[in-house]
Amino acid sequence: MTPDEWLASNEVRVEQIQTGGGYPTLFALFGEEEFDLELDTLFAFGLARLLDGVAALIERSGSR
């Protein structure tokens, strides 16, 4: 499945996330406008957050 096919197959779910109110932080990040996500952007964002968490864990374990 290509990234475009994956996004097309999940379009309804993305719209539900945008309008459902269950993810206010995500909504705040992207604003009130409908957002068009690309898988590379999602991957980079998720990887950066994961690495932020690993860095925080390393810092915390180093301060013991």
Could you please describe the fold and organization of this structure?
- With 64 residues, the chain is mainly alpha-helical.
- It has one domain.
- Helix content is 75%, strand content 0%.
- It contains 4 helices and no strands.
Main structural class: mainly alpha
Assembly type of the shown chains?
single chain
Question: Uncertain regions: pLDDT < 50 for 5+ in a row?
Answer: none
Q: How big a fraction of the residues is strand?
A: under 5%
> Which series of helices and strands comes N to C?
HHHH
**Main β-sheet: number of strands, strand sense, barrel status?**
none
What does the overall shape look like?
A: elongated
Helical coverage, percent range: over 70%
Number of helices: 4
Total number of strands? 0
Q: Give the rounded overall mean pLDDT.
A: 80
> What separation lies between the terminal Cα atoms?
46 Å
- Write down the domain tally: 1
Radius of gyration: 16 Å
